[in-house]
């Protein structure tokens, strides 16, 4: 099973925050399988085939679905309705008849760079989630960080996990982790326009000049959201 370095420090998604982006950071080893898969025999990995903005889910995202969890308020739930799978809220399953609950979505993986295909499986006892998401050859180049703030909504919310992959080459307008004038931030970066900007239109863009101190640490390849509070930080 692979392990991943994790920094014990939040990444600010707004342009305010830390005086020193590196002091006090603590490196730890972490396995995404151990962190996110709590009931392997009852959990599957599937692909979202619809946008669900309220839950920050986009068509094509990978979803962990745990059939052992009892649906609760605020859950996103995978159901079968009229022969098709759909993602619905807890309130919707109370209103509709003939819905078959497949399981509760416990985590979502949004790829900013294309990921590996999901193998055919009956449960996550059949393969290692960590090594699917982060192949062994990339283990030493990846760091897991935690987002702070809401400027990168709807995909990155406060408390979400960000996979910083230092092996990826820079692409215009893709999210990066960078130190901007001593503050560690997650922003989309356009070098041609010299602009750092957020996904949330409520937050202003920052136009960069020669007086700004900038260091790019790497590209964000994936954003992970854990939906139930009690499942976070295990």
From TrEMBL:
<dbReference type="Pfam" id="PF00717">
    <property type="entry name" value="Peptidase_S24"/>
</dbReference>
<feature type="domain" description="Peptidase S24/S26A/S26B/S26C">
    <location>
        <begin position="114"/>
        <end position="220"/>
    </location>
</feature>
<protein>
    <recommendedName>
        <fullName>Peptidase S24/S26A/S26B/S26C domain-containing protein</fullName>
    </recommendedName>
</protein>
<keyword id="KW-0614">Plasmid</keyword>
<dbReference type="InterPro" id="IPR015927">
    <property type="entry name" value="Peptidase_S24_S26A/B/C"/>
</dbReference>
<dbReference type="InterPro" id="IPR039418">
    <property type="entry name" value="LexA-like"/>
</dbReference>
<dbReference type="InterPro" id="IPR036286">
    <property type="entry name" value="LexA/Signal_pep-like_sf"/>
</dbReference>
């Amino acid at each position: 099973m692979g392990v991943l370095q994790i920094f014990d420090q939040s990444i600010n998604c707004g342009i305010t925050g830390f005086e020193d982006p590196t002091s006090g950071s603590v490196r730890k080893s972490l396995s995404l399988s151990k962190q996110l898969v709590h009931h392997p025999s009852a959990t599957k990995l599937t692909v979202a085939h619809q946008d669900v903005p309220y839950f920050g889910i986009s068509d094509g995202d990978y979803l962990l679905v745990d059939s052992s969890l009892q649906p609760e308020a605020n859950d996103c739930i995978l159901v079968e309705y009229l022969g098709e799978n759909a993602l619905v809220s807890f309130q919707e399953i109370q209103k509709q008849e003939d819905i078959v609950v497949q399981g509760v979505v416990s985590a979502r993986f949004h790829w900013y760079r294309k990921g590996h295909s999901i193998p055919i499986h009956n449960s996550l006892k059949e393969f290692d989630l960590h090594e699917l998401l982060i192949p062994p050859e990339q283990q030493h180049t990846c760091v897991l960080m935690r987002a702070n703030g809401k400027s990168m909504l709807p995909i990155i919310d406060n408390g979400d996990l960000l996979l910083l992959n230092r092996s990826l080459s820079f692409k215009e307008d893709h999210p990066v982790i960078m130190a901007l004038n001593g503050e560690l931030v997650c922003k989309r970066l356009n070098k041609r326009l010299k602009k750092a900007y957020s996904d949330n239109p409520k937050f202003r863009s920052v136009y960069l000049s020669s007086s700004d101190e900038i260091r790019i640490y790497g590209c964000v390849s994936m954003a992970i959201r854990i939906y139930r509070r009690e499942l976070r930080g295990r």
